[in-house]
Amino acid sequence: MSWATSSRMLCTTALFAVAALTGCGSGPASQSPAPATPIPLASSWRAGLFVDGYGPQGLGPSTTPTDPAATTGDSTQRALAELGLTTADFGTGYSVNLLPQGDTLSQSSLRFCGAEYPSEKNRVARRLVALYDSANNRVGPVSDAVQYDSAAHAAAALAEVRSQLSSCAANTVVKTGTTQLVVNPQPSDEVLLTNLLPEPERVVMTELVTEPSTGSSALIQTLWQQHGPYLVALTFEADSKTPFTADEQRLFNTLGGSIADRLTANVAG
Questions:
Q1: Predicted pLDDT at 240
Q2: Does the N terminus or the C terminus of the chain have fewer Cβ atoms within 10 A?
């Protein structure tokens, strides 16, 4: 709404990388990588403060201990479940579950920098999911798979993101309900761009979101990839005091590549 070394090519930018990243990265990999074990909370994963962009959420027990995607009679939700993060992306003991109201349009999909996104009215379905451990605690990335009423409107949504990322000013104040937050774009020059969709179909950004009333803050890194009528966001969150580690960036790239594979394999361009 959101809230990765020598063997991999890095694409760097001289300015704040809140615009689209260009010029690096190949097309999507030919096959999905093997399941990965998330970085343990005790080492590099930090408790995210924000989910899918803005609004303090914190971590805690999931309200949806099992993801109903496999049993739902809704073919649209089943299709969206195949595009975002899946339990098969991770090792034993982890599961990907639907977040509260994550299969409705009651929440915004695009909300960066407090801007208005006209494409929101063109959404027809979405699926917001997060990673949980065996104790049912949220421990890692979030994905938001959104279906639009046409491929043109999905591309327009990505274009809106690209435009806002290039124009968001430092210390932009946004409000979510009664909560005031301050957004600051951050460099994204450590993001690995191999195996993602090509630049016209992707945007990457990093932002620092702070809640002045409490002093809490978080780094939020998001990759948007669009193909056909779908736009899928992958979001990582980290403690603001420590940048994303190399291991986190590699995992971010691996998961982004898996999403790119699914979009190209399952969706006509």
A1: 76
A2: C
Burial of 198 (0-12, 13-18, 19+ CB in 10 A): middle
Q: Provide the terminal-to-terminal Cα distance of the chain, rounded to the nearest Å.
A: 25
The residue among 5, 121, 98 whose CA lies nearest residue 52 is 98
Which residues partner with 206 through β-bridges?
186, 221
| Residue in 88, 133, 3 with CA at minimum distance from that of residue 259 | 88
CA atoms within 13 A on the CB side of 257: 24
Amino acid at 228: G
Sort 139 into a burial class: Cβ within 10 Å, 0-12 / 13-18 / 19+.
buried
H or E element in which residue 263 lies: helix 246-266
Q: Which CATH class is domain 68-266?
A: alpha beta
Measured distance CA(261)–CA(28) in Å, rounded: 6
Instruction: Say if residues 182 and 171 touch (Cβ distance below 8 Å).
Output: yes
- Structural domain boundaries in the chain: 68-266
Q: Note whether 148 and 159 are within 8 A (CB).
A: no
Entry pTM: 0.77
Predicted confidence band of residue 69 (pLDDT cuts 50, 70, 90): low
Q: Exposed (0-12), middle (13-18) or buried (19+): which is 191, by Cβ within 10 Å?
A: buried
Residue 23's alpha-carbon distances to 4, 166, 204, 269, in angstroms, are 17, 17, 13, 21
What are the phi and psi torsion angles at 232 (to 5°)?
Answer: -120, 125
Structure tokens at 78: 């089943």
